[in-house]
User: Which sequence fits this backbone?
């Protein structure tokens, strides 16, 4: 149950993660070429296979064109005007949290993600990423006892190179799309999770991404592998300071689920969205995809997208294993001049596969919010089923909402069901709630939460409350 | 108009109220005073301004007051927000209660009740205490507990919606309740439940305004005064037998009053 007073308090707050941490950083020069990529790889002391992976991706990227099919409009990005590696200066080798710069710990404290032994969250392990590097990962020893590996991807490259070499780029190949290719060439840090056979991860795992620097892009890479009959719930949060320039964030997330494994991946995305005039904010161009490789495997995406100036993101599932299950639950809220083009792809390849899509788009202010989704039934996907529900809510009369469902079926013995609706918060509804003593902003947030209920129910408890608060906050002053 | 001397102060005073929407005048100088313990009925043809009057008293943003005052417990409330009016004890029972998908009826009732309790400096109720209170109030309108877990008014029948309105009135314990055609669309049994609910909730300290077309509600709840509205004005006020006369002679009969005035 959401504490209504809390919602009310939060409604009055501006973007509270907009501060900058004043810390000495090591940045490389602006621009992108082979030498830069070699430099990044060298800084990270990477094995040759990874440098080759990066260089190959870079060659592909150079031949590719930035996609323009999304319902988005923005000024052309100058890729030579971005810094591709930025890290807070630290001691060479950090063996414990005590050696982490207190300023960094303080930053995460302020963001509500305490990392130190005394204060760390008790029910969730956290990997904290600051600009291009992972700062700390909590509960590592406890997780290791269960055979669970949870660390930054840079560390995994060093300590678990076999797993990286085996799986990296197998779900999202470097050539997949323009931003995935860019990420493959320059990715800096991110999280790595490995759940061994038969293990149910004893606690939720979480990555917290913080962009601090205004002129560097963030290119994180996350890889999660769930072996046979294992399961894990992973949460991802993101914030950034308020700058009047746009910062590029192009991440790639790959999930792999083997026989009977399940991965639940939840995101609350709250990158800085720019101001009311649309100045500044993050360009969030992300490729997230999960591969249900094993029989009866399951991958479930839930996302609450409230931040970023522009969101371009389609967390998808490749359903290869027989009877595998893909899910996508999404709330995307846009306000002011934000733009979002988001949705999912459910690719049914194996027989008796099942997918569910529930998307809730809320557009307020002058924003633009599009759902774009593909459901494909391959020739072997006999007996497979999909259910999609895409609802849009408009607040005010300047916002727009679109739904672009693409359906491709090559298998007559499969079912695809699509429902869509659009509604508007009406003056009558608001008056009704107000005439029962409920204040205006609270009335709006009640209705928005109500609209999103199906998705919030899928989120881990504390995330659901957080998400509810976040929506209330984002809608401040958007009505009337 | 009201000649009897009153011992207490009025709850509601509407003084020479004129109002318009989109520059179209709807109310043209309405005056009405409600004292504690009184029941007033307002009758009149569709479009005469009855519903508008009720919405304006509740603070609907679509109407502009062009002249006159609304006073509640002696204070001018012309510029108060609808939620402030509700919290301070004004209740509007909607003719067409609004559906709000996704918002649970229970949560809605609780937030609403707590807003009023907060205003009264009473302790706000948590879900458990509220559950107890609402159970008791459900009895009054003979509603099933299952109503609480549904979305506000969504998929409710006409009668269920109206009973949900009276449930809200029972929870909010207003000083004055304006019930806009609460009787329309009700079968006889539902009408009796609603009428007995209204009677149970009201007392010598509260005021009630019943907006209705039909005598049958007034058979159940006998008004002290009946007002007839036409073209944005109250054209005749009488005691409860005026409603009977109106039922017999129809609104055409009242057209003569306009000619007279």
Assistant:
């Amino acid at each position: 149950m959401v504490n209504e007073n809390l919602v009310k308090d939060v409604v009055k707050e501006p973007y509270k993660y907009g501060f900058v941490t004043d810390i000495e950083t090591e940045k490389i020069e602006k621009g992108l070429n082979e030498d830069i990529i070699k430099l990044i790889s060298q800084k990270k002391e990477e094995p040759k296979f990874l440098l080759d992976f990066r260089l190959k991706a870079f060659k592909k990227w150079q031949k590719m064109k930035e996609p323009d099919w999304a319902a988005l409009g923005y000024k052309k990005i100058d890729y030579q005007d971005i810094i591709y590696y930025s890290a807070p200066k630290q001691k060479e080798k950090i063996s414990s949290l005590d050696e982490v710069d207190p300023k960094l710990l303080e930053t995460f404290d302020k963001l509500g993600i305490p990392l130190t032994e005394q204060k760390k969250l008790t029910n969730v392990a956290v990997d904290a990423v600051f600009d291009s590097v992972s700062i700390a990962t909590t509960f590592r020893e406890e997780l290791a006892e269960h055979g669970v590996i949870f660390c930054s991807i840079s560390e995994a490259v060093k300590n678990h190179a076999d797993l990286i070499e085996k799986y990296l780029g197998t779900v999202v190949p470097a050539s997949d799309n323009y931003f995935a290719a860019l990420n493959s060439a320059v990715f800096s840090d991110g999280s790595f999770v490995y759940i061994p056979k038969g293990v149910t991860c004893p606690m939720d795992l979480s990555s917290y991404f913080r962009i601090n620097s205004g002129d560097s892009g963030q290119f994180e890479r996350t890889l999660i592998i769930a072996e046979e009959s294992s399961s894990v719930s992973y949460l991802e949060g993101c914030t950034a300071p308020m700058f009047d320039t746009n910062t590029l964030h192009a991440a790639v997330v790959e999930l792999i689920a083997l026989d009977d494994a399940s991965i639940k991946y939840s995101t609350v995305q709250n990158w800085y969205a720019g101001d009311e005039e649309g100045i500044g904010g993050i360009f969030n161009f992300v490729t997230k995809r999960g591969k249900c490789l094993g029989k009866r495997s399951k991958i479930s995406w839930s996302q609450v997208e409230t931040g970023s100036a522009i969101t371009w993101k389609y967390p998808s599932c490749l359903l290869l294993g027989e009877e595998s299950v893909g899910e996508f639950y999404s709330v995307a809220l846009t306000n002011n001049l934000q733009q979002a083009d988001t949705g999912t792809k459910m690719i049914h390849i194996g027989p008796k596969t099942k997918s569910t899509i529930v998307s809730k788009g809320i557009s307020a202010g002058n924003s633009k919010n599009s759902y774009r989704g593909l459901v494909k039934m391959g020739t072997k996907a006999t007996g497979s089923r999909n259910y999609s529900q895409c609802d849009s809510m408009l607040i005010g009369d300047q916002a727009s909402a679109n739904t672009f469902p693409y359906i491709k079926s090559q298998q007559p013995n499969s079912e695809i069901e699509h429902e869509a609706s659009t509604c508007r918060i009406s003056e009558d509804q608001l008056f009704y709630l107000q005439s029962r003593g409920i204040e205006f902003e609270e009335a709006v947030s009640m209705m928005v939460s109500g609209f999103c209920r199906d998705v919030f129910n899928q989120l881990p408890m504390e995330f659901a409350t957080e998400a509810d608060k976040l929506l209330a906050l984002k809608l401040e002053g958007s009505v009337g | 108009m009201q000649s009897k001397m009153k011992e207490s102060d009025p709850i509601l005073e509407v003084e020479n109220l004129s109002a318009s929407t989109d520059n179209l005048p709807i109310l043209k100088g309405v005056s009405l005073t409600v004292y504690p313990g009184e029941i007033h009925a307002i009758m009149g043809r569709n479009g005469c301004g009855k519903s508008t009057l009720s919405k304006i008293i509740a603070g609907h943003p679509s109407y502009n007051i062009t002249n006159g005052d609304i006073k509640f417990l002696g204070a001018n409330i012309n510029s108060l927000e609808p939620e402030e009016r509700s919290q301070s004890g004004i209740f509007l029972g909607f003719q067409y209660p609004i559906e709000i998908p996704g918002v649970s009826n229970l949560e809605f009732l609780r937030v609403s009740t707590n807003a009023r309790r907060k205003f009264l400096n009473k302790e706000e109720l948590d879900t458990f205490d509220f559950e107890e209170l609402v159970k008791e109030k459900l009895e009054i309108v003979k509603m099933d507990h299952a109503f609480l877990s549904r979305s506000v008014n969504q998929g409710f029948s006409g009668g269920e919606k109206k009973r949900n309105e009276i449930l809200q009135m029972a929870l909010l314990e207003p000083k004055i309740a304006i019930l806009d055609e609460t009787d329309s669309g009700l079968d006889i049994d539902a009408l009796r439940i609603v009428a007995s609910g209204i009677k149970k909730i009201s007392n010598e300290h509260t005021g009630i305004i019943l907006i209705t077309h039909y005598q049958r509600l007034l058979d159940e709840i006998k008004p002290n005064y009946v007002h007839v509205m036409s073209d944005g004005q109250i054209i005749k006020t009488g005691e409860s037998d005026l409603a009977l006369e109106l039922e017999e002679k129809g609104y055409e009969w009242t057209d003569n009053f306009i000619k007279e005035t």
About this structure: Chain A touches chain B through 25 residues (CB under 8 Å). Residues 8 and 442 of chain A are 6 Å apart (CA to CA). Chain A is about 25% helix and 35% strand.
